[in-house]
Design the sequence.
């Protein structure tokens, strides 16, 4: 396997370096969007071609400070596999590790507490089919009752059971977990969910939302799926956001 010597002097494959750059870009997109949460919350990705290795943000840094080289490689239990001056928020990785461990398609996981998504997670009925983006998700979201901060392993069984075959789990009174096979798909899904929640909240503030019928939701989801069928879903949007990030700061590439 080809190797690249990164600035951290940590020897790695080209695939790992590419995954590091894409994940660092994702953190910067989230920072640019205002979807950061002090030094908390996590976006994780599996290291390609390496079983049981994941990349996570260094604990203590803001999303806008994440670079390809300062991401930390960890095992499924959150133990460091690469040298770093920073620690890992092991508690924050508990639910990520659960999904990475048990779902073969969980290559990327995003969990954040944006105001709009956390607000809808905290609302009776959760996301309602009352706007364009929300109709994307009708029937595709799972919900999990709040049990306090998600650091106890024994909650894992219920998290998996409640997720079922969906790949977005709305943690009630908390925030969403978005699970996807690639980072661009995870980001575009998170973006659409964020927009659905923002618009639902704004609509509820303004008046009575119009509920879309199941027949129309079915047509919407069928046609949307066909329109979005591309070789690399989410890539065009991801690349456009990366160009915006680069206008602010290109250091994520280092
Ligand atoms: Zn959380």
Sequence:
């Amino acid at each position: 396997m080809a190797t690249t010597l990164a600035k951290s002097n940590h020897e790695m494959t080209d695939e790992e370096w590419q995954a590091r750059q894409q994940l660092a870009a994702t953190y910067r997109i989230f920072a640019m969007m205002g979807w950061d949460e002090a030094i908390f919350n996590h976006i994780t990705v599996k290291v390609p071609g390496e079983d049981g290795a994941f990349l996570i943000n260094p604990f203590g840094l803001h999303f806008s400070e994440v670079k390809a080289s300062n991401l930390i490689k960890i095992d499924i239990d959150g133990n460091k596999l690469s040298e770093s001056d920073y620690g890992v928020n092991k508690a924050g990785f508990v639910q990520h590790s659960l999904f990475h461990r048990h779902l073969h398609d969980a290559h990327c996981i995003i969990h954040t507490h944006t105001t709009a998504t956390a607000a809808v997670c905290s609302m009776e009925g959760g996301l309602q089919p009352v706007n364009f983006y929300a109709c994307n998700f009708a029937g595709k979201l799972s919900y999990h009752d709040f049990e306090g901060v998600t650091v106890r392993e024994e909650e894992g069984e219920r998290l998996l059971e409640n997720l079922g075959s969906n790949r977005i789990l709305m943690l009630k009174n908390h925030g969403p977990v978005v699970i996807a096979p690639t980072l661009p798909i995870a980001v575009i899904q998170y973006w659409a969910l964020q927009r659905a929640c923002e618009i639902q909240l704004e609509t509820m503030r303004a008046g009575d939302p119009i509920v879309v019928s199941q027949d129309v939701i079915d047509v919407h989801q069928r046609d949307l799926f066909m329109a979005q069928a591309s070789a690399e879903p989410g890539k065009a949007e991801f690349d456009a956001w990366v160009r915006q990030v680069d206008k602010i700061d290109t250091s994520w590439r280092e």
Notes: The longest strand covers residues 175-180. The domain at 3-248 is CATH 3.40.225.10 (L-fuculose-1-phosphate Aldolase). The chain is about 40% helix and 15% strand.
